Each structure stands twice: as structure tokens, then as C-alpha cells.
Amino acid sequence: MSVDIFIVPTAPSGTWEDLTPNERAWIEFIRVISNGSDPRITPTRVRAARGAPDAGRGDGS
Amino acid sequence: MSNPFQNTPAARLIADRVRDLSHRKTQAEIAAEAGFTNANMMSLLKSGKNKVPLDRVPSLAKALEMDPALLMRIALDQAVGVTAAKAITDIFGSPVTENERGWLTELREVSDNTDPRLTARSRAALRGVFGK
């Protein structure tokens, strides 16, 4: 991390604008439910979250 | 003296980080590391007497050992207000933290890059993960 130049961190595929609308929605929802705490990635959370995308497929609920 | 920024997310987060680091760094050391000449600056930021100077976000985040994108996001809300901050991020994009980048990577992996929608059931699953 540089202290000399401010660089906005970017998402893996590029900038925020390059994220899909769905990906923005996921990130914004995580921010809301985590109360802006920027939750770390832990093995427990990753295991628990694995079902979330699958749960979102299908019937448009 | 009033505390116009008392209990803002930025003030609370800074207080939390100062407390978390207190076994290794004093507030004065954090202030110096962030480039503040006033050794009491961390107290002023924690209490909400002062707002976070946006030009110090990178060095302050480093001193507080936290992600600069998160600090910038909430410092922007504090500095210009939530509505103006939203207008700025609508145009320039919202800073994405390292953790968020990681969550996006996980999302893409587990969904086989199918760009899944965030549905009501997805939300419920995420609430379970983050305990809310």
C-alpha cells in the first residue's frame, strides 16, 4: 500500500464500473448486512456462503 | 465544543481500530504515522470533533492497519454527507476493499462465472453467513 499516491482499489476484473450489475448488488448487500464492517474471508464463512449463489438460480425468487 | 461527527461510522471505526491496536501502538504513534502533527488528532477523530481529512485516508488507513477503500468510503460519507458521497461514487465508482475482491472471486468460482442474481433466497443465505 502506497502512502504517496492514492489509488482506489479495484475489483478483480477492473474497476467498479466493470463489475456486472449483479456483482455490484452482491457487494452492496454484503456491506449492508455486515454493517460496513468489511468482513474478512474465513474458511467457515466461505463454506457457509457456498450455497448462496446456487440458491439464487432458477425460479427468479 | 460540539462533536458534529460523533457516532458517525468513521468515528466508530477509528475508535475500534485504535482500541484493537492499543497493545502495540499509542494514539500519538498512530497520529504521527498517519502524518498528523497534532498528537491528539486520534482523540478528535474518535470523539467526532473532527472529520477525517480525505487527503490523509491512505496514510491513516496504513497507520490503523485497515483497508483504505473501506476508510475512504465512510470518510467520504462523513466529509460531504451520504447523498453527495453517493453522487461521487455513482460517477467515479465505489472503492472496493481487498475483502470484497475476495468475496467476488469466491462468488465467481462457486457460480462457475454464471453471474448469479441476488435473489431473496440468496439474501437469506448471506444473512446466515454474516449472522444478521
**Secondary-structure element string of chain B:** HHHHHHHH
Broad shape of chain B: elongated
Cα(first) to Cα(last) distance of chain A is 41 Å
Measured distance between first and last alpha carbons of chain B: 37 Å
**CATH fold call of the largest domain in chain B:** 434 Repressor (Amino-terminal Domain)
Which secondary-structure class do the elements of chain B indicate?
Answer: mainly alpha
Secondary structure layout plus pairing:
The complex is a heterodimer of chains A (61) and B (132).
Chain A: H1 21-33, H2 43-49, H3 51-55
Chain B: H1 9-21, H2 27-33, H3 41-47, H4 57-64, H5 68-80, H6 82-92, H7 98-110, H8 120-130
Write up what this structure looks like.
The complex is a heterodimer of chains A (61) and B (132). Chain A is mainly α. Chain A has helices spanning 21-33, 43-49, 51-55. Chain A is globular, with a radius of gyration of 15 Å. Chain B is an all-alpha fold and 132 residues long. Chain B has 2 domains: 9-92, 434 Repressor (Amino-terminal Domain) (Orthogonal Bundle), CATH 1.10.260.40; 98-130, no CATH class. Chain B is 63% helix and 0% strand. Chain B is built from 8 helices and no strands. Chain B has helices at residues 9-21, 27-33, 41-47, 57-64, 68-80, 82-92, 98-110, 120-130. The mean pLDDT of chain B is 91.
Short description:
Chain A has 61 residues and is mostly helical. Chain A is 41% helix and 0% strand.
